[in-house]
Amino acid sequence: MKNRYIIFLSIFLIVQLFLACQSNTTSKQANNDWNVGSIDIEADSNLKDVLQPLVVIYQNYFPKAHINFIYTPEDITIQRFKTKKNRAIAISRLLDENEINNASIAQDVELEKITFAYDAIAVISNKENVDSVFTIEQTKSLLNNKQTQLVFDNAKSGIARTLMQISQSSKDDFKQAYVLQNADEVIEYVRRNKNAIGFIPFNLLSNKFEQKAQFIRANFKILPVSYKNKVTAISQQTIANEQYPLDRPISIYIGSCPELVIQGFTSFLLKRQISKAILLSGLVPKNMPVRDIVVSEEFNPEK
Predict the structure, then answer these.
(1) Nearest residue to 54 via CA among 252, 200, 199
(2) Can you give the pTM of this predicted structure?
(3) How far apart are CA 136 and CA 303, in angstroms?
(4) Of all helices (H) and strands (E), which one includes residue 259?
């Protein structure tokens, strides 16, 4: 009887050990599944130059994952999210309370939000333009002033909406704005018209090593922005310090999305590899990478 009890106990312990191993294997497999598979994410078209390099980095680490961004104007992206015509979006602003409630009802889940970087709206003008500062509080009067042309990338762009909200202008005021198809058309229009002031994503000129950024910096005036009697030039530093008034958080919202790969991708966006890439591009990552070497500002060998 005693021997039978010992045999039973041994079998029980072996089974428990086997189940524990299976559980660990399943857990590891679940984590691995996060970085396997494919997903379509609808994104603000102004984020294409930001997102595509990050996809390359992620897929280099996880070749079994495939992230496909579909680019549309920001307002359209958000509207489709609120009607469940897409299940995950990448945009350059935070959804307001109403938008979150509507999207949550449509998606039938509690939304998940991941903010991983910060961009901003850059204000550019022709080099012959007499203006040296763009004052946000004067937006309404400038829109109704035929001598100055405020130029935006798209009627459904989030850039125009952001400026409209912060300047407390109306939709009727913005009917006077020049609306083109994309940021490249804004750049070309401002280049040809000395009275034009254009609004484009900072990411187009933030990376000083890229040819397009070098062209913009060399051929246009990048206007500082005045808001509440404080003038601030756009830069990586003023965005990071929350001094520049037209900064924009880059966020991914996840709705009813069964594909686990989006969890792997969004988790990776907060890791050191991505933070370094965002920092090098001239933008501001949500999580600043730790510096391996601290370099002092002054070099005093005699001390």
Answers:
(1) 252
(2) 0.83
(3) 49
(4) none
Provide CB contacts within 8 A for 256, sequence distance 6+: 84, 87, 107, 108, 109
Model confidence pLDDT, tens digit, residues 4-50: 434 433 433 343 444 444 444 333 444 567 899 999 999 999 999 99
Distances (CA, A) of 50 to 57, 67, 73, 246, 277: 12, 14, 15, 18, 10
Q: What are the structure tokens assigned to 216, written together?
A: 């913009």
42, 30 Cβ separation under 8 angstroms: no
Domains of the chain: 34-118+248-285 (3.40.190.10), 120-246 (3.40.190.10)
* Packing angle, helices 261-268 and 48-61, rounded to 10: 110
- Residue linked to tokens 């509507």: 102
Count of Cβ atoms closer than 10 Å to residue 171 Cβ: 9
Q: Please check whether residue 223 is in contact with residue 131, taking contact to mean a CB–CB distance below 8 angstroms.
A: yes
